[in-house]
Amino acid sequence: MNKKEYMDLHASLCAKMMDITKRKNADYTGKTDDPFANFRRCEQLDICSVEIGFLTRMTDKMARVNALLQNGGAQVKDEAIEDTLLDLANYSLLMIGYLQSKKPKCESPL
Q1: Residues with Cβ within 8 Å of residue 81, at least 6 apart in sequence
Q2: What number of other Cβ atoms are within 10 A of residue 64's Cβ?
Q3: Closest CA to 91 of 60, 68, 67
Q4: What is the pTM of this model?
């Protein structure tokens, strides 16, 4: 793979990630407008912090990637390693969004 092929792949995967995150966020958050609702539930249930909830899901994905690499593939054919890695990337972006949402909003200088 050369640089152009990688950049084309990256663009294609980012588009796929956007589609996945839209659909999964709708499934996990229901009618609420809060994209982090699913992760806030762990804190609401006094299980762990929102941040630890994110890290737990990300650790699950990394463990799955490790198992898939060791086993030479998935037993469930519609859950390939690429899907797991895209989920991990989406969790990373979702956590970035959550951390940014916690920062105080700057007041307008006007």
Answers
A1: 65, 68, 69, 73, 74
A2: 18
A3: 60
A4: 0.86
Q: What is the pLDDT of residues 31-60, one digit of tens each?
A: 899 999 999 999 999 999 999 999 999 999
From 32, 50, 47, select the one nearest 91 (Cα to Cα).
50
The phi and psi torsions of 107 (rounded to 5 degrees) equal -80, 150
Task: Measure the CA–CA gap between 26 and 18, rounded to whole angstroms.
Answer: 12
Task: Write the CA distances from 4 to 1, 16, 62, 82, integer angstroms.
Answer: 8, 18, 28, 20
Task: Say if residues 53 and 43 touch (Cβ distance below 8 Å).
Answer: yes
Distance separating alpha carbons of residues 34 and 51, to the nearest angstrom: 16
Helix (H, G, I), strand (E, B) or coil at 25: helix
Compute the CA torsion angle 42, 47, 50, 55 (nearest 10 deg).
-110
Residue written as tokens 């009618």? 31
Instruction: Measure the CA–CA gap between 88 and 69, rounded to whole angstroms.
Output: 15
State the DSSP H helix or E strand holding residue 37, giving kind and residue range, or none if neither: helix 37-44
